[in-house]
Amino acid sequence: MTTYGLRACEVVALTLDDIHWRDGKIHIRQSKTGKPLELPLTDEVGLAIQDYLKKVSRYGTHREVFLRFRAPGGTLRSTAVIEAFQAWSGRSGLEIPFKGVHCIRHSYALNLLRQGTPLKVIGDLLGHRSPESTTVYLRLATEDLRTVVLPVPTPIAAIDEERR
């Protein structure tokens, strides 16, 4: 979630078939747009998934990467991710004003903005249909947004007046 800015429902929907180890890619089915997203499989994420798969016993024919530990076994629901995040963020002692998983997506978007990533690319990575949706994620980054402001165009009439 922190590496790719995924939604909780996209994490629980991730299957073993979505991870292409040899190609170094991970495929995400974006829940809101339905569009596929292909991302590089980072070493950190690849190793974390490998470690998880080695430690957690698989049962049944489930292809999802993350499964329930407690009975009844099977696939996770998004609420499990949300509850885990809330528990861990509470234990961390960090001042997180909003304890929801979505704050990770906001942080991801802000980090991309600070790296100079264009708004359109940030929106595409987050699976947004419109720039307005993306700017909501960046609304608290006023100082960062000021660094990417374009100058207000001068009206043509004012340019003609200056030339005379």
Describe the structure.
It is built from eight helices and five strands. It has helices spanning 8-13, 43-55, 78-92, 102-114, 119-126, 131-137, 142-146, 156-163; strands at residues 19-20, 25-29, 36-40, 67-68, 74-75. The strands form two sheets. Strands 1-2-3 form a three-stranded antiparallel β-sheet, with no helix packed on it. A two-stranded antiparallel ribbon has the order 4-5. It is elongated and about 80 Å long.
Topology:
Elements lengths: L7 H6 L5 E2 L4 E5 L6 E5 L2 H13 L11 E2 L5 E2 L2 H15 L9 H13 L4 H8 L4 H7 L4 H5 L9 H8 L1
Antiparallel strand pairs: 1-2, 2-3, 4-5
Briefly summarize what is shown.
The chain has 164 residues and is mainly α.
Order of helices and strands: HEEEHEEHHHHHH
**Given the C-alpha coordinates, what overall shape results?**
elongated
Which class of secondary structure composition applies to the elements? mainly alpha
The count of DSSP E runs of length 2 or more, i.e. the number of strands, is: 5
Distance from first to last alpha carbon: 58 Å
State the helical fraction.
Answer: 40-55%
Largest sheet: 3 strands, antiparallel
Number of contiguous helices: 8
Radius of gyration: 21 Å
**Numbering strands along the chain, what is their spatial order in the largest sheet?**
1-2-3
Question: Any low-confidence stretches, pLDDT <50, length ≥5?
Answer: none
- Average of the residue pLDDT scores: 82
What fraction of residues sit in β-strands?
Answer: 5-15%
